[in-house]
Amino acid sequence: MSATPTPVSAPIPVIRTERLILRAPHEGDLDVLAAFYASERSHFVGGPCDRFQSWMRLLGGLGHWALRGYGWWAVECRETGALAGRIGVGLHEGWDEPELGWHIYEGFEGRGYAYEAALAARRHAAESWGLAPLISYIVPENHRSRALAERLGAVVEREGSVVGHPCLVYRHPDPRGLA
Amino acid sequence: MTRPLAISLSGVPVLETERLILRAPQPEDFEAFAAYYASERSRYTGGPQERNLAWRAFCHLTGHWVHRGYGFFVLEERASGRALGTAGPYFPEGWPEPEIGWTLWLPEAEGKGYAGEAARATRAFAYDALGWNTAISLIVDGNARSAALAQRMGCWLDGTFEHRQFGKSAIWRHPAPASLSGSAEGRA
User: Fold this and answer.
1) Residues with Cβ within 8 Å of residue A151, at least 6 apart in sequence
2) Mean pLDDT for back-to-back runs of 10 residues, chain B (188 residues)
3) Any residues with CB less than 8 A from the CB of A178 and at least 6 apart, and which?
4) CA gap B70, A104 in Å, rounded
5) Which of B11, B58, B93 has the CB atom closest to A8's CB atom?
6) Do A69 and B4 touch (CB under 8 A)?
7) Residue B185: what pLDDT?
């Protein structure tokens, strides 16, 4: 047995867009993530929850990459390094198919970051992972996310639910067919 | 749908004991994990939990390896290839200090010394490979089987800990690395 542990890594791709970097989540993200999940802003996406649960989600996000081969990135502003949100593709237990999701943290709204990150993530999912056009589950009252989905060209395919919560199921266009 | 290539957890060691292979969690282990969390047997480890929450917890076990560089191994029975449970070094947010944990998912795996075999091997891993100088095990009040194993491993009671989700635990302190070498409770 070696004297020092070998670093464990899951090779998570890094994507650069004009203003953002999509990168693997790491432990330094916990304070921002826990603040998001402590706030009412998280109530459309499974929150609020405490710091321990936020930590579970942070690690769970990494495990998802290892188990599924894809997952959620942390979204960083290129200019400042600030953590602006999270975005990615998830297929959790109880989900019908891989879902494109996004969370933008307080203070980073209204800049088009979610749109920019979603376009990049959606393209990567199609081109690098070969995933079929993705869905997004959105709570009907989450008007900002619905507006973004529609701006992304997604359309409501049906009313559905995810782990018991009613939601709209949006279907994204195939990015390979878009300019 | 094309399935993307699974991203492998490179660097998770494999430990071998007389009857077990201790290895990284794999997607195929989830069914046994979910069945455990659906059962009353999980009441000392945060369960029972719905299947979708069990999935989140399973992802978290895998992510722990990436974050901390160590984590729970899955115990695979050499003879059958079955995944029996988990054991290993574990240090989540809010824990008083890093611990050695163990869980048998399958009731039929109990009573054969598998948990002890795995716990000793992973304690030795924490001491030898990770360089830990001490270790604890948190055992939720009422979990007599695990407390008995802690005693057999030479642990003593060293305080209590209360967690919002898991409830009240006893803190069992393991013998330090130096006091294990050469003893019957040694490196197994």
Assistant:
1) A115
2) 51 94 94 96 92 93 90 97 97 94 96 97 97 97 96 97 91 95 56
3) A153
4) 31
5) B11
6) yes
7) 53
pLDDT at B165: 82
Cis peptide leading into A48, omega within 30 of 0? yes
Query: A with B: how many residue pairs have Cβ under 8 Å apart?
Result: 148
So what's the pLDDT on residue B66? Answer: 86
Which residues in chain A touch residue B52, judged by CB atoms under 8 angstroms apart? 92-94, 163
Dist CA B39 CA B55 (whole Å): 15
Residue A97 CA to residue B1 CA, distance in Å, equals: 10
Q: Is the pLDDT of residue A34 over 50?
A: yes
What pLDDT score was predicted for residue A8? Answer: 63
Q: What is the pLDDT of residue B3?
A: 43
- Judging contacts by C-beta atoms under 8 Å, the chain A residues touching residue B65 are 8, 66
**Rounded CA separation B170/B78 (Å):** 32
Please identify which residue in the block is written with the tokens 């070094």: B89
Compute how many other C-beta atoms are within 10 angstroms of the C-beta atom of residue A107.
9
Q: pTM score, two decimals?
A: 0.81
What is the C-alpha to C-alpha distance for residues A163 and A76, in angstroms, rounded to an integer?
30
**The predicted structure's pLDDT at residue A10:** 64
Query: The domain at B15-133 falls in which architecture?
Result: 3-Layer(aba) Sandwich (3.40)
DSSP A86-135: EEEEE--TT-SS-EEEEEE-TT-TTSSHHHHHHHHHHHHHHHTT-PPSPE
Contacts of B18 by beta carbon, 8 Å cutoff, 6+ apart: B117
What are the chain A neighbours of B69 within 8 Å (beta carbons)? Answer: 5, 7-8
Could you please state the CATH topology (level 3) that the domain comprising A15-132 is classified under.
Aminopeptidase (3.40.630)
Report CB contact under 8 Å: A63, B93.
Answer: no
Residues of A in contact with B66 (CB under 8 A): 8-10, 59, 62-63, 66
Where do the domains of chain B lie? Answer: 15-133
